[in-house]
What we know:
This protein has helices at 7-12, 32-41, 51-60, 88-92, 118-131, 147-158, 180-203, 217-232, 235-239, 247-262, 306-319, 361-408, 411-427, and strands at 68-73, 79-87, 98-101, 112-113, 136-143, 164-175, 209-214, 266-273, 276-286, 289-297, 326-328, 344-354. By secondary structure, the protein is an alpha+beta fold. α12 runs antiparallel to α13.
Amino acid sequence: MADIADRxxxxxxxxxxxxxxxxxxxxxxxxxxxxxxxxxxxxxANGYYQPDWELAVDASARGRTGAAVLSAAGDxxxxxxxxxxxxMRQIYRIPLxxxxxxEPYGTLCTPLLDxxxxxxxxxxxxxxxxxxxxxxxxxxxxxxxGPAMAAIRAVLARDGLQPRMLSAYQRxxxxxxxxxxxxxxxxxxxxxxxxxxxxxxRLSDHGAVRFDVARTPREVATALETFLVLESGGWKGxxxxxLSQHAGDATFIRRAASxxxxxxxxEIVTLHAGDMPVAGGIVVxxxxxxxxxxxxxxxxxxxxxxxxxLTLELTRHLCADPAINSADSTAAPGHxxxxxxxxxxxxxxDVLLPLRRRDPLVPAIHTALTLNNFAYxxxxxxxxxxxxxxxxxxIGKQVTAAVRLVSAxxxxxxxxxxxxxxxxxxxxxx
Length: 430
């Protein structure tokens, strides 16, 4: 990818222009109490840039360690802005002079800005990035229409600059100020809710169904271990992306969950059928917003939709909490499970912020990122195609079994097979 940029442009940049993240302090040196105070005053919530979470990520999470920090102080010396960053070459393997907002495992890189000094904070942080040799600042998975982005646009406009959009999509969110039952009726309709109640009833054949919320550090530590087992036993475990499969990731989530629970900012929700946990999720809190970080299910109960059942209970739980006004699904666009339930949307995307007017390196950085995104989406599409082909082969085998059942006995046997087995498998591909 290094060849994407115009070589002449790169050579014209002096050694002083090259991004030197060593001139920036390490994230671990950020003042903890001041950071916590800033998070409480932030103009826009980001649960994943709270210090107890992001410091745990930076300490051990796989591929996410070693961040530096852009920060700004007010006239009285208080912290008014903070953004963890890494060099562009570390994320994209492209040796161009730019900084990238560090991804905190929660796919949201909105910086923390003091609500009373947001534009001042942005101006000072952009100046600090320039002084470190950066020609651009890239914010991935940034909230595009919130007050933080509005402050960034205002500061850039004063310098005759404007952000460059790299990608954008709509992410599902929950309006937790509504009555949960009314919200679910509007979102799913009576037919779908009836089907989900039927699945809930079938799940109760395995024991009384209950929804538990772990809040205290001790409860969270115990429930987290249950969650890690659920997650690793599902498709994430098969792909090697479950948290417990990598020592650094497991260390991160145990440290983060414990520290966040101490301040009431992390919950583990679990759905049980009798003594058996069938689904679990990790929820982070910041100000009046919740963040649905991860979900794990026992896929032996897949025909009962345990992930959906857990999300319905979580919806009721959050809507009943007067401290929470909204929840970020932290989900990919068009997520087949949560998008139909949480019908609210907010814009999220990747943004390139130029740091100098008429800078010839900015178009090169933009082009490099555009081609990198194109290659990434192509690889994801290929992976989805391969997985769908494998799933279709699995369905084909079940269809053959159904034909044998029909020829051997009543058609009702095959009908029940389709309802309980093949249909959930097929719907998972849609």
